[in-house]
Amino acid sequence: MKLKFRLIVYVLAIIALCLLRLELDKGDVFITSDGQIKFYQAIQYKHNGLLSTECYYPAKDIDKTYQFFPFEYPWTRLKNSTCIFQYSPFFSYLGTLISVLFNDFFVMYISILFCFFCMIVFDRILSLLDVKEPIIAISTILTFILSFPILTIIDFSEMSLFHFLVLGGLYISIKIYLAAEQKPLDGTIFRLLLFQSFLFGLSFLLRGEIVLLGWIFYAVNLIFFGFIFLKIRSIAFLAIGLSMPIIFYGIFHKLQMGNPLGYRLLSILDNSKHSMSVQEHITIGIGYLYGNKIMIGIFKAFPGLALSAFIFVPKIYREIPRYIKVLFAIGFSYIMIASFSITVYGGVGYFGLRYLEPGYIILLIVITYITSHSIHFSKNWKSVLLLFVMVLFMIRSIQFIKRGITHLHGASVFYHGLQSKFAKVGNSGYILHTSYNTSYLIGYSFLKQKHLIPYTLSDFENIEKQIYEKGEEIFIVVDTPKDHYVSADIPKEKYPKFKNRYKIEPKYFEVVGKENFLEYELYTLKRKK
Description:
Helix content: 55-70%
Shape: elongated
Structural class: alpha/beta
Strand content: 5-15%
Largest sheet: 5 strands, mixed
Oligomer: single chain
Mean pLDDT: 87
Number of strands: 7
């Protein structure tokens, strides 16, 4: 299958993703918990300027100090009566651009666009590794369309842009390996090192995982390719390439927020000091690898990853080039270390594997290489067995992706139903929540209605009075059960804000309707006559 035909396949796959996204967006823009914050940031920059730091907040008319802002950890930093969204703005700037040029609806398709770019670079990597052409297309589709990365791709997430930069760095790395094995080090190789390290540094503007991935990448390369990376000139070019975007990141955040780390990294450092015990780290790590009641587990969902273990077969190990061994060591080490060091659940549906995506994609490159270079249908029954296992891998992946998409469809139906309930208060109407546990339900309604979280009955009464004085006829309360589960990755001192401790006792309004949505209760309150 020639490149132009593979490109047609990739375009058709992207069209399918767009149709899936359209299905999820029926009636309104569908946004999941993390995606909604980045989306709000994009709207914030659209309305308040690209250097604005104060959270976009429609309900600021009655809450000027953000005391009842409906989002906190891990999405915002509330300090000195101001609020700042924690994510670095660089991805949201793309959303701002699309929102200004077109409208809010098309912002959701940025991730899908960069998925297409990822597929092209992934294709080029496999071609560089001399993988057989039909297998290139199969592996590319398997990696980005029939595996769990699809759940972040169809969300408003920077993951696909992050993968695009990392894959670009890997592509250049492989060109460096090939060039270094064929001729002495020259200026071309050093320029490639500069470009490769620059792409890795640029990815730091999007995702903190590059810090772990980068350490593993360069540590492994020192072991296998020390003759390249230990040269003084190599170190200089690597330092320049990495430092340029990272210095820009630090200066930008210092000027914008007063701290070069940015608030996202600051919060991670703050909460990692006291939020989780060693046992909780182990529990989350096992969940990432083998699953638990929250996460599906990467080796449980995709047992075909065991194909990468073929690298240890003596004959294969002797014959495969060093750079494939390097990729295996990087991908496998990243998955194992990340699973036990990351202190939060990955989210996005029930999969929860978002943070493992870089290692997973790298291991798929290794698996594809081994599969392609081991297939001799008429000569070796072991190759047929390997291909058969690869097919089972695909079937298993498709099964879980089908379940994941079904889960998303169910969530979107619930989401749109809830959005229609919120719409009853009209544009600029008020919706109160009794805890942070309902923050993820807000979605696109945040831009149309005014959401607040009164933590106590006294807070509720104060806000109710202000709503009454503004002449509103109706508002909605979203109530959380008192015994609602709080995720283990939430710092313990924040638990009270995620649990409801009171029942509403309206004074100026009366309850005229009550509905159940999952475990939550929606109260419609109308002004007393």
